[in-house]
Amino acid sequence: MATKLASVLLLIQLSGYFSSGTCGKVLVWPTEYSHWMNMKTILDELVQRGHEVTVLASSASILVHPSKTSAIKFEVYPTSLTTKDFEDLFMTVINRVIYDIPKDVFWLYFPQMEKLMWQYSDFIRKLCKDAVLNKKLMTRLQESKFDVVLADAIGPCGELLAEILKTPLVYSLRFSPGYTLEKYSGGLLFPPSYVPVVMSELSDQMTFMERVKNMMYMLYFDFWFQTFNIKKWDQFYSEVLGRPTTLYETMKKADMWLIRTYWDFEFPRPFLPNFDFVGGLHCKPAKPLPKVNIFLFVVFCLFIVRVEALHHYSSLKGTLFLTNIKVFPNIDSKTCLLVSFQHLNHSSLRSQSFTS
């Protein structure tokens, strides 16, 4: 009898290993530009594996919109904002960061950065308000019975949707200014004695004075810098949920944090089990190289010149290529790069170094 019972239990256990997995329904709260490009690659893979993916996009979205070539579903909701408003916001932020804000003194740089982040925060809060207060939209989302909400942590609202829909929450994040979201919402520790604060331009090999500087950065981000206008978000979340709460308290309920980089690229520091490094997960597999026309062979052969000549002509202003060729200052003057096309039929390239 004991032998039969053991056999039955073993059979049940093995059937669990070999049974096919079930597909789920994913609701996505995205952000724009590179964040959306990274996330879309993951969503395309989920669709190929049989999952049902629905992206919640506003009518003001720039890149997040339905595509005929994609199997991803889009739930577009109306908003009082326009696409031009969104584009103008991003162009203002980019121009201010590149041209206007001084970068040499951090107590001048980061307050200006905070103002720009708050402009973005207010814009996202309006989009979030238009979504969660749309009763017809929220009814459709609740009836869809999603299994998980996937959101970009830099654009708040995904955690509010997960709280309303009573579904698990998964974040996608590269990093937040000063690691504030990772610390206050994710519970990570960043010992300032050996972990440089992100955006401080310090390394993990710090002198005593650099450690003091790192401590100043940490105190500044902890007590003065706010990535989002926390007061407005806390009030908004409390009104929607009908109870006192905060943005960080809601974000703390995230079940998983997907960090868009490799573990070995980061500075060593403590991590929690629900933080997973997924560097490369958002990258598409490389496509095979196409067959190269023999004309390219002639072009590359004519391109063999000496480095001294390139440095000589690089003094001519207005020639971007010849100016940027200075990135090769250590290449021997007699060394040139020749591309071999010996295997054109196999669509492969080999680079060989030749010495004249």
UniProtKB/TrEMBL annotation:
| Localization in the cell | Endoplasmic reticulum membrane
Which keywords, in A-to-Z order, does the entry hold?
Endoplasmic reticulum, Glycoprotein, Glycosyltransferase, Membrane, Signal, Transferase, Transmembrane, Transmembrane helix
State the InterPro entries in the record. UDP-glycosyltransferase, UDP_glucos_trans
The protein depicted here goes by the name: glucuronosyltransferase
Q: List the membrane topology term(s).
A: Single-pass membrane protein
Q: What is one cellular component GO term in this UniProt entry?
A: endoplasmic reticulum membrane
SUPFAM superfamilies recorded for this chain?
Answer: UDP-Glycosyltransferase/glycogen phosphorylase (SSF53756)
Pfam families xref list: UDPGT
Which family, according to the similarity comment? Answer: Belongs to the UDP-glycosyltransferase family.
Supply the source organism's classification.
Eukaryota, Metazoa, Chordata, Craniata, Vertebrata
Where does this protein come from, organism-wise?
Prolemur simus
Q: EC number(s) in its UniProt entry? A: 2.4.1.17
UniProt keyword Lipid metabolism, yes or no: no
What GO molecular functions are on record for this protein? Answer: glucuronosyltransferase activity
Signal peptide start and end residues: 1-24
